[in-house]
Amino acid sequence: MGIVGEAHKVRVLGAGEKTIVLGHGFGTDQSVWKHLVPYLVNEYRVVLYDNMGAGSTNPEYFDFDRYSSLEGYAYDLIAILEELQINCCVYLGHSLSSMTGVVASIFRPDLFSKLILVSASPRFINTDDYYGGFESEEIEQLCQAMESNYKAWISGFAPLVVSGDMDSVAVQEFSRTLFNMRPDIALSVFRTVFTFDLRHFLSRVTVPCHIIQSSMDMSLPVSVSEYLHRNLGGKSIVEIMSTEGHLPHLSAPEATIPVLLRHIAHDITADGDA
Question: Which key words are in the record (predicted)?
Answer without folding.
Answer: Hydrolase
